[in-house]
Amino acid sequence: MRILLRFWPDIRPRAVRYVASILFALASTGISLLIPVLTGRAIDGPLAERSLPGLLAITGLVVLVGTAEALFQLIRRLLTAGMTADWEVQWRHRLYRHLQRLDVARHDEWDSGQMLSRATNDLSQLRRFFAFGFPFLVITPVLVVIGGVVLALIHPVFALILVLMALPTMAGVAWFNTRYQVASRAAQDTMGEVSTSVEESVQGIRVLLSFGRSPWAARRFRLIVERLRDHELRKVRLDAWLWGVVMLLPQLAQAAIAGVGAWGVVAGWASLGDVVAAVTLMMYLRMPIEMFGFLLSDALMSLTAATRYWELMDIAPRITAPEAGSAGSTSQGSPVLTGTAGGGTVSDAGGTVSDAGGTVSDAGGTVSASRGSRGESLAAAPRTAPAAEHSPDAGVLEFSEVVFAHEDADRPVLDGITLRVAAGETLALVGTTGSGKTSLASLVPRLFDVTSGRVAVDGADVRALPLPHLRSRIGVAFEDPILFSSTVRENVLMGAQAVAGEDGADGEEPPALTDAQVWEALEIAQAADFVRALPAGLDTQVGEQGLALSGGQRQRIALARAVAGRPQYLVLDDPLSAVDVDTEDRVQRRLREVLSRTTSLIVAHRPSTAALADRVAVLDSGRVQAVGGHEELLEASAAYRDLMGVHA
């Protein structure tokens, strides 16, 4: 059970209360062992002597013992319930915070259902175990020992029978332990697969219905749940064997005590009261002994749950703040770790992190920010830190000999990219699928880190900047936008940049934008008209992942979120792919107002989007093939003309 000791820092502040709850559990169960002793005394004493006062006195003691047992049980429950519920909240919160700190590549390595089952089923299992299973797992052997001592006081022969019962029980428990752990782990892992399958089918219901593939999904799900059934049945078979042993042996011991006791009464070395007390005591011991089978299986499932929880918690983020030792140096080629990039799989991160050191705000003075001590609000402060305001590199985005590769890939996705985007300039990235456009854009907010080379903002390597400080200055919108199951207003406000702790701890609320500023962002994204038409306007719930809206509507709200905070840097990965040409043209006209004050990187697939940029970089196989203006490249680059669908 060493894995459970890792929860000790959480338990320690309430250790006294927890130990008290265990002692009350022991007292409530242990005091009941007095009843068989009192019964035996009643038979040999008041009943044999026909003494009514003596019988009433023993009866009163039995009532007193029963009342004390109920009172101790009540106190134990009151001590335990709230305490273990608080631990479950603490563990869930800590796991959620940890998941927020993990980089995108780490999330890509795990099925979401496996993460979900660890955060829900496993932690609920641990809460139940610490509330009930662990206390009674501790006190059950103690009760058996106390019962054995009482039996020995009645007569040593009765205690010997109890010991003879205990030996095969221990052997059965040892056999059960090794096999049940394997079965429990397999079942809990398969439950994670079930969660993943359900989540995928719900999120992909439009695809399944459109292609008529619901029967395929049902068959696939059935195979998983049948595998789960097989694992659960194996657990049931093992449980059945254990329960058979722990239920049969106490009954045999009880029968043996009755038989040997009857012989003792006839032989004269035991009284009738002693035999009744021993048999009754064995009946009381049967319950904790039989419950031990349940407690053991519960303990093994809890150990598996704890192992799965710490497996996730032990994953170290590969992209961390420089204080954690991930970046330290701003020189080229500094050792960093890489992740797995995939177009469309990266969620929209715009506005989820923020500045923890230095002042932040928009260039036009429309948002407030915090600096220094958390809570000191500065309205209309410059977006950059004061030290960078007069730097020649202020607002400059630079890629220097950037190489990025998947961990297990044979060749890099990006190979020696060198580009410089001047302050206030817009650079479009164009290229065929797989040319590295999305990967390059993802390096700016450090969703991934370079394998070698350097990405710099304001002349500083992004790996040398605190993550909140870096990301608070960057607005991001991706082709496949993710909205949260909240209102339109709250989704847009995510772009206002909250102040978060370096370790991913809870931060302050984002600077409050007025409704006028929210509407302004929606106007830029040409989303204001359809938002006004929604049932509750800004307060309309967009549904899970925004699926209550169309693809184009989700993209425009995500774009409004990206520009709401007037970021110093803007990274747009084909953010208008799902809108019609007329809407795209209106968005681009308004977007030029933002881009004129922002250093922007745009992944473009349409000529109109590329024409929006000051310069265009053509990527092919992870390398820059050409850089120039839109019209210039149309004349000079055949590859660019092919990409834009323009033929000479």
UniProtKB/TrEMBL annotation:
Membrane topology: Multi-pass membrane protein
Biased amino acid composition, Low complexity: 379-388
Domain of life: Bacteria
Subcellular location: Cell membrane
Every ABC transporter domain range: 397-646
Keyword terms: ATP-binding, Membrane, Nucleotide-binding, Transmembrane, Transmembrane helix
Region of interest: Disordered: 323-392
Spans traversing the lipid bilayer: 15-35, 55-75, 129-151, 157-176, 266-285
Predominant location category: membrane
One Gene Ontology molecular-function label: ATP binding
One Pfam family recorded for the sequence: ABC_membrane
Annotated ABC transmembrane type-1 domain residues: 19-301
Biased composition (Polar residues): 327-337
Residue ranges that the Swiss-Prot or TrEMBL entry lists as coiled coil: none
Protein name as catalogued: ABC transporter ATP-binding protein
Taxonomic source organism: Brevibacterium salitolerans
